[in-house]
Specification:
232 residues, mainly alpha, 8 helices, 0% strand, membrane, cell membrane, transmembrane helix, Polysaccharide biosynthesis protein C-terminal domain-containing protein
């Protein structure tokens, strides 16, 4: 309360200067992101209730440990994105074709680098999890690889999603996330029933891949960014 009093007393917040058009713009961009948050929860949280119901909590303990360790990538990608997108928006404001092509080249190199890193987890993921979590949480390389690849698709999605934010297509962002989340719930219910933990990991990976590809496709269609270096 004291801080609010100081702000008002020193006239740091003057309501008469707040533009109604700015408020409308904020609501127009911000409100559609509410379903986006729900979609994110479905993609990374709600599935745990489904697989625990199908496979049992004791069975999925190793899966949950791997998933928890893989969330390190979420923090890394989020930090990269927060550093990257202000610079990206500055470059996009130049509205220069050469700059856009360079941006796409940079994005391509980033994607290839991440996909190359993902190969490691398909061959040494199990050893890494055992090293971090202990021998009680031994799990196959394929499951570890799929979970980490899914997180990498999430990092690729963040990079390309910035273009939709630049175009203020927040409703589209929410739609893509919700659709990907629903697909994830359907796939994980089916895959985990037939293929157990491998099916659950595959479902997560495919859903994150779908989210990335849907975003990429819409960026290519809607924005002026030559994401596949459109032919003139």
């Amino acid at each position: 309360m004291y801080s609010i009093f100081i702000i008002i007393k020193n006239k740091w917040l003057i309501f008469s200067r707040i533009s109604l058009s700015i408020i409308k713009d904020i609501l127009k961009v911000g409100l559609p992101l509410v379903p986006h948050s729900i979609g994110i929860f479905i993609l990374v949280g709600a599935d745990k209730f489904i697989i625990s119901g199908i496979l049992g909590l004791a069975t999925i303990s190793s899966y949950l440990v791997v998933f928890q360790i893989s969330t390190i990538f979420i923090f890394v990608f989020d930090a990269i994105n927060k550093s990257y997108y202000p610079w990206l928006f500055e470059q996009l404001n130049k509205n220069n074709d050469n700059t856009k092509n360079k941006l796409w080249l940079l994005t391509s190199v980033y994607f290839i680098s991440l996909l190359t890193v993902s190969i490691f987890f398909f061959f040494h993921g199990s050893a890494l999890i055992t090293l971090i979590a202990g021998k009680n949480y031994m799990i196959s390389n394929s499951i570890v690889g799929l979970i980490f690849l899914g997180q990498i698709f999430g990092g690729m999605y963040l990079m390309i999603n910035n273009y939709l934010f630049y175009e203020k297509k927040t409703m589209l962002i929410s739609t893509i996330t919700i659709v990907s989340g629903i697909i994830h719930l359907l796939l994980i219910s089916l895959f985990s029933y037939y293929w157990g933990l491998t099916g659950a990991a595959l479902s997560f990976c495919l859903s994150k891949c779908i989210q990335f590809l849907l975003t990429w496709l819409n960026v290519y269609k809607i924005t002026a960014i030559p994401l596949a270096i459109k032919s003139e």
